[in-house]
Specification:
The relative contact order is 0.22. 16% of the residues lie in helices and 27% in strands. The chain is of the alpha+beta class and 166 residues long. It has a 5-stranded mixed beta sheet, with helices on one face. Strands 3-4-5 form a 3-stranded antiparallel beta sheet, with helices on one face.
Length: 166
């Protein structure tokens, strides 16, 4: 008896699920952008591909991290502006305020260590050099830092494998 060939996912459910989960990160950033800031001990480690289309920031900063960068939003971040397709924030690097703009599609990890909540995403394709956005202007503000990704300890990892047909 011949087996039927596997059915092709013409709906592209994997991409839709990734977009939906990125919506969780977007909603969290919108909550963090209120004047009161993040509630309680919540804070975010956001890892993104610096070579993804639409990522912008000062050339000196992005050239230090040519592939991936992790930023921390905790106590010292300014002008957080979550939009529909990207967010912008001012952080301090080496004592200098720097403005970054990051499309949600460039995010590869979103982690809130206060509740061990972790989302991991498929990395986007790298943007061609001519398609990369121009660096954003530097805005005034004080202190946050780039840190290595959080340890892979007891984080809650949301896996899409459980929803796939076997």
């Amino acid at each position: 008896m011949a087996q039927d060939p596997p059915v092709q996912d013409l709906m592209n459910y994997e991409a839709m699920a990734q977009d939906a989960l990125r919506g969780v990160a977007k909603a969290a950033l919108k909550r963090a952008a209120v004047p009161e800031g993040l509630p309680g001990s919540h804070h975010f480690y956001i890892t993104f591909k610096t070579d993804a289309a639409g990522v912008s920031g000062p050339n000196d900063l992005l050239s230090k991290y040519p592939d991936e960068m992790t930023i921390v939003l905790q106590h010292q971040y300014w002008d957080l502006a979550p939009g529909e397709t990207f967010f912008s924030v001012t952080l301090q690097f080496g004592g200098q305020p720097k403005r970054l703009s990051v499309p949600y599609a460039a995010i590869t990890r979103f982690y809130d260590p206060s509740v061990q909540f972790l989302l991991q995403f498929e990395p986007p394709p790298a943007a061609p050099a001519e398609a990369k956005a121009a660096p954003a202007a530097v805005a005034a503000a004080p202190a946050a830092k780039v840190e290595p990704p959080p340890p892979k300890g007891d984080a809650t990892i949301v896996s899409l494998d459980q929803f796939r047909k076997k």
